[in-house]
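Retro notes
What went well: the complex prediction finally ran end to end.
Inputs used:
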Amino acid sequence: MGTASNPSNYTHCGYSHIGYVPCMATSAAVAALLPLPAATFHILLAVAHDERHGYAIIQDVAERTDGALRLSAATLYRSIQRMLEQGLLKETHERPAANLDDERRRYYRITPLGRAAARAEAHRLQELVRLARAQGILPAKA
Amino acid sequence: MRWLLHLYPTGFRREYGGAIAAEYRRRRAQADGIGLISLWIDTILDTVGNALLVHWDLLRQDLRQGIRHLLRTPLFAITAIGVIAIGIGANTAAFSLADIVFLRPLPFPTAGRLVTIWEREPSYSMTQPSPANYRDWRDMSHAFDAMGAYHTLSASLLGGGSPQQIAGIAVHGPLLDLFGVAPLIGHLPSASEVAQGAPVIVLSYSLWQDDFGSDRNVVGRAVTLEGAPYTVAGVMPRAFAFPDRSVRFWAPMQAAEAHDTERANSWFYVVARLKPGVTVPQARQEMNRVSTQLEHLYPQTDSGVTVMSLRDTYGVATEQRGGPLLLALCGAALCVLLISCANLASLLLVRAMMRRRELAVRAALGAGRDRLVRQLLTESLLLALAGGVAGVGLAFAAMPLLGQLVPSTLPLAQSSSIDVRVLAVAALLTVLTGVGFGVLPAIRAGGGSSFDGLRDGARGGGGRRARLRSILVMAEVAASVVLLVAAGLLLHALSRVRAVDPGFRQDQVMTFHTELPLYRYWRVSERAAFYRQVLDRIRATPGVQAAGYISSLPMKWGGGIWTVGIVPDTGFRHASLRFVTPGYFGAMRIQLQNGRTVADGDTRAAPFVAVVSASFAERFWPGRSPIGQHFNFAFADRTVVGVVHDVRVRGPERESEPQVYLPFQQVGDSSLISYAPADLAVRSTLPPTALVPLVRRIVRDADPLQAISDVASLQDVVDQQTVSRAVQVRVLAAFALVAVLLAGIGLYGLLAFAVSQRRQEMAIRMALGARSGQIVRMILGYGGALALGGVIPGALIGYAAGRGMNSLLAGVDAFDIPSFAAAMLLCAVMVLVGSLVPAWRATRVAPGSVMRAE
């Protein structure tokens, strides 16, 4: 659907069901998204390596944070919808083996833009930690 | 809990509703007891919060999308915003005025309980009562918890800035306490101060501001009012104005009513406050009973009473001056709004058709119909919002001009403002315009979301849509014809009123007001010395042709109506009384028809004489010579020595009572002092810049303390009578022109679109040998047919509107041929201009290229 010549440098652009989306270089597109909402960042981490369905994402986030962040289904799907529109996620149509799959489940996968955004957000957080260390708010690295 | 999902937009619900519900079911299966309740609460809060965020996301998306679209079609955006701004601006301004005049309560806390009481005479339902009647009404009635009276004053005030003559109110009884308004600083005169006519004065906010520098320590300050020492008691708040905006002070005056037995001398105004729970009809009933008793006691002078609410009293004044006018204004504003809305709907329809392909692409890519409708609605609301803001800005800008339409007789301190309620109405109009006229195109566009739109040659708009747009344009033409006819009728009425012969010649006359302070000029001989000195010196100036004094110039004051004592009784016996000096009739060029005018020799030692108007002579001595006839007037028997042409005392539009002019010296000292000549008229060839300083110097030489006010040319005095008419014509004409412009834009838009849609047809016609002339005729014919469809109903409604405005038309017939002809002509020009460009474009269609594109 996009008119971009190099998919790694450009986010998707052209007409989508939400209307016309202008072309933008990836770095500019990423910069426009930062800082990422916490839920978005965690969802990106959850699908960083495997495609997952919604319930699996909720569980993954809960496990990764030791239960500190428990996404509700409503928050999850609202975030997913927005992330799909932003091009951070992609819905996949490749399904796992039939005995492992529920027909109604929908699977999501990270896009190159999503990966770039997650990386940029992690850098941003890292930079914040560095600043905090320099000010003595956090102990220096062991 | 499934119903909660309906809080989400349809698309989101369809997409994720199942997954969210499944997750909920999973958690519910694990919960029990308290856990279940907490799950419910959790789910409800979570759903509401997230649904709001999803909606907000969509709105932001739509807004971004909408703004991008509008920026890509700036001409459309500017036209649409301009069209809405004009409609909403006109209505906001018109309704602000109507609100002030008709809806807003009078600005007094007790306004609902205030009434005015008047004497009733056979020929007038509301005349001022005498002090004696006021005293008796107050003592004999029980319906009121307080009754006060006042009369108007014009007094010289020293102690603030320069000496000046200002308008004020002489207070009798607890008048100022009736309103429930506390002074801004100081106190209101106490009952005993009022009863004794104590020398205290209450200042209006504007007087305090202008002449006392808003000094907070002004209370207790000594001032000189009409040469007598007074003390400032207080200052009223800015919003207080009574009885109207011109009044700048209130002062108790020695209560004459206690001993006054002169019941024919009527010069009070009476205001009373109803006791709680008493209605106006009950008070009226009681006052009728009181009046019947008084009629038995004084059959000569008492003949009835009128009680009406204060609001209605002003309503009468509004009715006469501004009521029909404001209704006409609101009608005009509604017409403009209607045209704006029709235009907007038409524009949006075209736009929706133009975007069929884009919308079809989006539908094909999975956007639901509700999503598209929502997008289009957001866009039209965005347009409406921008138009609404611009419109309110327009209204603010127009208020100073429109403010002149608010009658100055209303007790409103500030002339006009746009308040929160009117802004709320504007916001409502904006939203209604946006939704109402955005929904239709949106639904129609959303409805046809099949793949038809993708086909390159698809023609936008079927027959039904074209018909709808034609009807909209016809409605616009009709509404503009109504406005054109109304404006034409009012313009004709204005020129007719301006053409009325006032009975005098207003060119080359300057007028001045020098009200002599009566504490120094209560003797006639002292006044005579002043007039003689001033008039002799003015007349001796080269370039001055005539000069004279009168009690009050025509059109400045309609009062001074007296009853004529004459035998035999002829029914209507009222006439207006004015005292004049020699030279007055010459200065005004009021034509002498018979006998002589007043002379220096008409003193108290000489026989008492009168100069009367032709209508006076005709009424009392029809067919006979009036010279030498006698009648009783203003406390004396007078002999007619001259007859002059009638003068329109009450302005060009109202019938005047017959006029009687008396020599200024033939009156007792201290008698009829408010009739002492105070208006000076000077006819000269000198320019005002030379004459005015000269007259000022002459008056100062005669009396250094004498103030001069109201310096104006006689032409201005006369024009003042038609100011509201002139403003009204200007406003309606502006509305009409805006309407024509909008209708022209609407017609142009429709034809331009029709031509672009029918390029194929044109191309075929031209390929088959049609000449450009035929094509032009076809387009013009289409435009003309549309116009005709609007003009006919427009003319009929215009005629009905004209009949409704009858009271504004000064006798111009509602079916006024020139007005209708002018409206039709303007409409024809509009159609021609609106059709020419599309017609020209139609002839430029190159058959080859169009056919190839197909």
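What we learned: The radius of gyration of chain B is 36 Å.
What to try next: split runs per interface for comparison.
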